Amino acid sequence: MTLCAVTTYITETTNINATAIVSVVSVVSVVLMGPVVAVVAIVVMALVLVVATVWVVLMLAMLDVNGGGCDDSFDGGSGGGSAGCS
């Protein structure tokens, strides 16, 4: 199987494109630089994906932190969460 076929298979079976990205990085790293660099590349790719996910979640949470009032929108808490909401 070619590298493209392997990544396509992984993407189709797991439905996670990140897996395909990490697999491409790891295979290329093993071929070009050796297994130690490949492990480092895999860890870095995983950290990038985690950081990106956390950043997106935090940005979405921040959208309504200071707004919304008492309109039952997400304010970070069950009691309304906004200042002056009684």
Supply the helix-strand structural class: mainly alpha
Shape label: elongated
Secondary structure tally, helices: 3
Percentage of β-strand residues: under 5%
pLDDT averaged residue by residue? 66
* Order of secondary-structure elements: HHH
- Helix fraction, binned, reads 55-70%
Give the beta-strand count: 0
Largest sheet: none
pLDDT < 50 stretches: none
Radius of gyration: 21 Å
- Cα distance spanning the termini: 64 Å
Transmembrane segments: 36-58
Organism: Dreissena polymorpha (Zebra mussel)
Keywords: Membrane, Transmembrane, Transmembrane helix
Protein name: Transmembrane protein
How would you explain this protein's 3D organization?
This is Transmembrane protein. The chain crosses the membrane at residues 36-58. By secondary structure, the protein is mainly α. It has three helices and no strands. It has helices at 3-14, 17-32, 35-62.
Descriptive keywords:
3 helices, Transmembrane protein, transmembrane, mainly alpha, 86 residues, transmembrane helix, membrane, elongated
Short description:
The chain has 86 residues and is mostly helical. 65% of the residues lie in helices and 0% in strands.
Describe the secondary-structure layout.
Blueprint: H1 3-14, H2 17-32, H3 35-62
Helix pairs in contact: 1-2, 2-3
